[in-house]
Design a protein that fits this description.
Blueprint (H helix, E strand, L loop, with lengths): L2 H24 L17 H26 L9 H4 L2
Helix pairs in contact: 1-2
């Protein structure tokens, strides 16, 4: 795994855990009703797991965008060197 992927994966993993705690300190998975009661058939553990991975992906996408926008001048050549 390259260094930039680690810069994205590890903080997003930690923040997904924080989001999980915040969301489920307010919402009880047994009381979730969505899409016509689709969550009624799922166990609370399944809801916690799916929510964690959704949070992880969302925060990883935000971190990826931040890393992309924060590229340094060394990584992006100046316009004068890009054109012959």
């Amino acid at each position: 795994m390259n260094r930039k992927a680690q810069w994205i994966a590890w903080p997003s993993f930690l923040m997904a855990g924080v989001l999980e705690m915040l969301v489920f300190s307010v919402a009880d998975p047994d009381e979730l009703r969505g899409f016509g009661g689709a969550f009624n058939e799922w166990s609370p553990s399944a809801i916690y797991t799916i929510a964690f991975f959704c949070f992880w992906v969302i925060v990883a996408l935000a971190s990826s965008l931040t890393l992309l926008l924060a590229s340094t001048e060394l990584e992006v050549p100046p316009p004068s060197k890009r054109w012959p």
